[in-house]
């Protein structure tokens, strides 16, 4: 995604806690940093035009309100959070998860699911409002703006 956005002419910075993800992004010629989006300082805080949380990443940390509030803190006054959410009718969940791959089990981590039906109130509690929601190919995205704007 970072590479696709960079190819469209956007200034892009990928963030991930996992070295492999950062390496794969850099291998595609795009800047990426190994950082915890919730706990670490990020470059240009308060000056981001867009914070993109796609592919279920709103589940990071198991607390979508806290993550959206963190993303909101990265933004310029006219910035936006673009967040992919689960579709209509999907109930919000939060808890511990583990990934299994080729017989290897990850350590547990906090994860959450946020759906279209609940993104408004959760965004509101995070200081954001829903500007629009868009469905594309069966995937749902909400565009969030700072409530102050
Ligand atoms: C749902 S996966 C993204 C999958 C990716 N789009 C792909 O196609 O492989 C979530 C990603 O969030 C990263 N992640 C989890 N917790 C994080 C945190 N606190 N800060 C930054 N990245 C985190 C994981 O390492 C993982 O790469």
TrEMBL record:
Domain of life: Bacteria
Protein name: Class I SAM-dependent methyltransferase
């Amino acid at each position: 995604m970072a590479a696709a956005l960079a190819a469209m002419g956007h200034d892009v910075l990928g963030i991930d806690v996992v070295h492999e993800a950062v390496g794969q992004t850099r291998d595609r010629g795009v800047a990426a940093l190994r950082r915890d989006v919730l706990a670490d300082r990020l470059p240009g805080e308060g000056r981001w035009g867009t914070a993109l949380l796609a592919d279920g990443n709103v589940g990071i940390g198991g607390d979508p309100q806290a993550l959206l509030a963190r993303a909101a803190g990265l933004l310029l006054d006219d910035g936006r959070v673009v967040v992919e959410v689960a579709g209509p009718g999907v109930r919000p969940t939060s808890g511990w998860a583990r990934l299994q791959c080729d017989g290897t089990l990850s350590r547990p981590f906090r994860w959450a699911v946020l759906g279209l039906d609940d993104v408004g109130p959760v965004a509101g509690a995070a200081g954001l409002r829903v500007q629009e929601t868009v469905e594309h190919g069966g995937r749902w995205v909400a565009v969030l703006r700072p409530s102050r704007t």
